[in-house]
Write a structure and sequence with these properties.
The protein has a domain at 20-178: Alpha-Beta Barrel (TIM Barrel), CATH 3.20.20.70. The protein is built from eight helices and ten strands. The chain has helices spanning 72-75, 81-89, 107-119, 158-161, 164-173, 185-198, 212-228, 237-242, and strands spanning 20-26, 32-33, 43-49, 77-79, 95-99, 123-128, 143-147, 176-182, 203-207, 232-233. The protein is globular and about 45 Å long. Strands 1, 2, 3, 4, 5, 6, 7, 8, 9 and 10 form a ten-stranded mixed sheet that branches.
């Protein structure tokens, strides 16, 4: 397959007329797993799209949006839908995770990508921050959404990261789970408020941390309180297994 060329658009330009703006694809050449949420531990392919509409302080993929630290021309490429489908089809792995950044920024082009991936026998999970309501054309059998609203403790203003109309659209779809990053019981109290207000279910909690020690410590802080609320709990398998290495 031809090596994709660096994009020629500027940092603030998200024109996807000639393809999707991609940060990285991985899981075909070096196998990996979905590391979080309901499919944790499932073999998975990842298509990580570039660009995000939030600027979370604790984000662990700042190379998709923080152009004060990273060069968008080095960190992203334009890829056609056909090229992405061919890459995914080269692997027997069924699950394709479309993540970011915030993938739904580019959802006009994602409709075609999802349709072609499903036709190739794949199933699709989106990892989204829940600020952009999904297109009805993405609400199809074989596609699911792991919605991860960002709390103020994650280093972002909730006035930007909590969009009620988008969250309620996901909740009404029947195709979403709500996966919150948390590090304290106070975070769980805030999650409960959001879940009640916007009727978010099912709720998954994931401990914050980019090292095995941090994930373990946060797990022990949160586990009893999460269990008491009868929510689901997920680890960060990629951190425990691969030390949060990029592309794993």
């Amino acid at each position: 397959m031809t090596t994709p060329q660096p994009i020629t658009v500027g940092p603030a330009t998200d024109d996807t007329a000639s393809g999707l703006i991609v940060a990285e694809c991985f899981g075909a050449e070096v196998p990996t797993f979905q590391g979080e949420g309901p499919s944790c531990g499932h073999p998975a392919l990842f298509i990580r799209l570039s660009r995000c509409n939030l600027t979370c302080v604790k984000c662990d993929t700042k190379f998709t949006w923080d152009w004060t630290r990273f060069d968008p021309r080095k960190e992203s490429t334009k890829r056609t839908v056909a090229a992405l489908v061919a890459w995914a089809a080269s692997s027997p792995v069924e699950l394709v995770v479309i993540t970011g950044g915030e993938p739904l920024i580019q959802q006009a082009r994602l409709v075609e990508l999802v349709r072609e991936l499903l036709a190739a026998g794949k199933r699709v999970e989106f990892e989204t921050n829940g600020t952009i309501a999904p297109s009805p054309e993405l609400m199809v059998d074989g596609a699911r959404f792991n919605v991860s609203p960002k709390l103020a403790s994650f280093g972002v203003e909730e006035g930007k990261s909590i969009v009620p109309s988008a969250l309620e659209a996901f909740a009404a779809s029947g195709r979403a789970v709500f996966k919150f990053v948390a590090s304290s019981v106070a975070d769980l109290d805030r999650i409960a408020e959001l879940a009640i207000t916007h009727r978010l279910a099912p709720v998954w909690v994931m401990p914050e941390g980019t090292t095995a020690q941090a994930v373990t410590e946060a797990t022990r802080v949160l586990a009893d309180a999460v269990a008491a609320r009868h929510w689901y709990f997920t680890v960060r398998l990629h951190v425990l297994a691969f030390a949060d290495a990029r592309g794993r």
